[in-house]
Amino acid sequence: MFLGLVLVRCTPDHQVSSIQVDNTQLFHKSVKQLTDIIVYDVFSPPVASRVYAYPAIAAYEIIQQASPTLTSLAGQINGLTNIPPIDSTTQINTSIAAIEAFTLLGRQLVFSVEKMDAFRDSFHNAWLEIGITPGQLEASQKYAREVVQHINSWMDKDFYKETRTYPKFNIDDKDASRWEPTPPAYIDGIEPHWNKIRPMVMDSASQFIPPPPPLFSIEPGSDFYKEAMIVYDSVNQIEKECYDIAKFWDCNPFVSHQKGHVMSATKKISPGGHWIGITGLACKKSGLAIDKTIEAYTLVSIGLFDAFISCWDEKYRSDLIRPETYINEYIDEDWKPILQTPPFPEHTSGHSVVSRTSAILLTQIFGNNFEYIDTVEEEFGLPARSYDSFLQASEEAAISRLYGGIHYMPAITEGIKQGEKVGKLIISRVHTQNQPINMSTIQ
Fold first, then answer.
1. How far is the C-alpha of 195 from the C-alpha of 46, rounded, in Å?
2. 20 to 30 Å CA-CA from 234: which of 15, 145, 227, 277?
3. Alpha-carbon gap, residue 374 to 337, rounded angstroms
4. Which secondary structure element, helix H or strand E, spans residue 232, and what is its range?
5. Are residues 394 and 280 in the same domain?
């Protein structure tokens, strides 16, 4: 039995049921279950953002129909049309249907379907135990399946399936400035065609092209060499606080370990998963009801989706060498970063982009000075950290890439700017409520 299930009497849900269930905590548990499966299945950060986005939108489009303040995203998100309307003659509970749609679509996007199936079975039984009638449950499930089918038709046009057949990234080993796989696993470049994915809100993947990185050079005293030395010195002279920050924001979903001839790996949360976790913390602290909770998760998921597309478009355009490769080749062959270098090009920093986008959206929802304790990484053995605002957290996430030795500063500073543009675009174009947006409140 889930403790979050509380039976209450209130206004009929969409005028079809006299029983309303407060499923807010169950929706949080559903998001966490999806995150756990994403970690278990080792989805790359861009793909993980897709796994979050579509289920959240399906849930949102259902719950907004019973909300007095929310409005549909149809027509606001690229290609999304209105879902089938609720038949007022049926016993549909929108809270149940939203959770059903989220978990059912989430199930379709992961590999370990049995984990989601077991989770779904448990809360189906819980609903029946607290008094939801089989008729209500069946009607809500049937409607959720209709909505999922509608979202599936839209999702299938985002060009994801087509990119699964594209060739892997071609390494340009004749150009010293170009990215190449890094130790210990030397994995091929991940998702080199992600800029082909249809954005949610942006006009195109290239809408926010950042300035190019400094001109590559191996000459001591050149701008590029100086940037490499900043990374080198930051790692070599790191203090404990900076080390802790690097570790806290690592968010590498697949860290390889090599001992002799044996290779193993540690699975962890992705950058997007970390910010989804922060979203949950903020919703719980604010005591948001299920409609506003789903709204928050959905906006952040949309932001993650477009932020990764924007960032990956630049990564494989500039195709820049990582600090680890450059430093080992031209400065110190024995040097190692604190964090493991992820398997994709340097510029811009993915965590900088998606963290800023997420912080911009969460600031719009919860305010400029929302204090919170980030406990998301505790399950991975890292102590909680406190923040005065989401923007402060995003800045720390960005600079963690320098402390960890995996990004030059231009990738971080330009990544922050890029993420801010994505976040502000979403706020200006996606209106979940019928009220004007005051852009001056977004710092």
1. 10
2. 277
3. 25
4. helix 223-236
5. yes
Q: H/E element holding 372?
A: strand 372-374
pLDDT in tens, 260-278: 667 677 999 999 999 999 9
Q: How far out from the chain centre does Cα 315 lie?
A: 18
167: in domain: no
Token pair 């000075």 is at which residue? 369
Number of H helices, E strands in the chain: 14, 6
Domain ranges, residue 375: 175-441
Does residue 200 sit in the same domain as residue 341?
yes
338 located within any domain:
yes
pTM metric for this prediction: 0.93
- Exposed/middle/buried for 417, CB within 10 Å: 0-12, 13-18, 19+? middle
**φ, ψ of residue 169 in degrees (nearest 5):** -70, 135
CA gap 248, 373 in Å, rounded: 13
Q: What is the pLDDT of residues 304-313, one digit of tens each?
A: 999 999 999 9
Q: Give the closest residue to 238 by CA, choosing from 332, 336, 344, 321.
A: 336
Provide the CATH number for the domain around residue 24: 1.20.144
Domain holding 417: CATH number? 1.10.606.20
Contact partners, residue 329, CB within 8 Å, separation at least 6: 176
